[in-house]
Amino acid sequence: MSGLLAGKTALVAGVANRWSIAYSIAAAFRREGATLLLTYQGERVRGQVEELGAELGAARVLNCDVTNDAELEALVAVLQAEFPKLDAVVHSIAFANKEDLSRPFSETSRDGYLLSQNVSAYSLVAMSRALAPLMSEGGAILTLTYLGATRVVENYNVMGVAKAALEACVRYLAAELGSQNIRVNAISAGPIKTASARGIKDFSKVLDAVAAHAPLKRNCDPAEVADTAVFLASSLGRGVTGNTIFVDAGFQIMGL
Ligand code: NAD
Ligand code: IMJ
Question: Which of 57, 152, 154, 167 is most buried, by CB atoms within 10 Å?
Fold first, then answer.
């Protein structure tokens, strides 16, 4: 074991199943020697995530719906008692109403807009505020974003606006938490077939287009995203904060 994260404790939020990007990140963190803490969204996914946690050798699997302040506070209380020093936090969470990812963007309702912002962007602020006090020796906060934050991607709609806010949150949080040696970065992953991609209209066409046009002539792999997360969470990433790093087989550089 090379142990890039040996002696570090990492909390990973956003594992729903073994296809989740957060699952690949958790596996890579464990491979590098981190003590793993997983959080899940609620009772609906609890059993599944507990099984995956056991498989990964996670030290704890805890409930936390990131839209619920009381659940965030309860999480902090458990951590304070059992894992007083936290070194890395991974936020791999997004949600929008399914109908807002298919109908015209201008038809997005106020509630749908606010829901996607709350779950997908504000939650990074809430998690950072709650967990930064536990990162007493500095550390790294990571989130997952997508190209649709800065370019118009068909059907991404309200999620693109939420990711634009998320990327701005990364910069403001990085500027503020830098004095505590806490770095905040986003990884912009290329399209990956996860639960959050299943059922998206024409998703396989998106995958084909990336494989055809990306410099590497293929899609990205969740393990590649995970290894970039290891780099950012480890001391190798110590000079990097406030950034969005693309792990997308190079797709975003292409014009025509
Ligand atoms: P996923 O469905 O496996 O993960 C999304 C996670 O968000 C789930 O674990 C779900 O339980 C969690 N979640 C939703 N609402 C929550 C809440 N209120 N509280 C706590 N957790 C909540 O899909 P994924 O593709 O692994 O998505 C992870 C992240 O990666 C998302 O931010 C997504 O936008 C981003 N991303 C995905 C792709 C892709 O193509 N799959 C590409 C780039 C970025
Ligand atoms: C999602 C929608 C439209 C186009 C899309 C995506 N493309 C990609 C995604 C091109 C790559 C996946 N992605 C990057 C996401 O962030 C997905 C977020 C998401 C997905 C769903 C599907 C099920 C649901 N709500 C969702 N909320 C957020 O009900």
Answer: 167
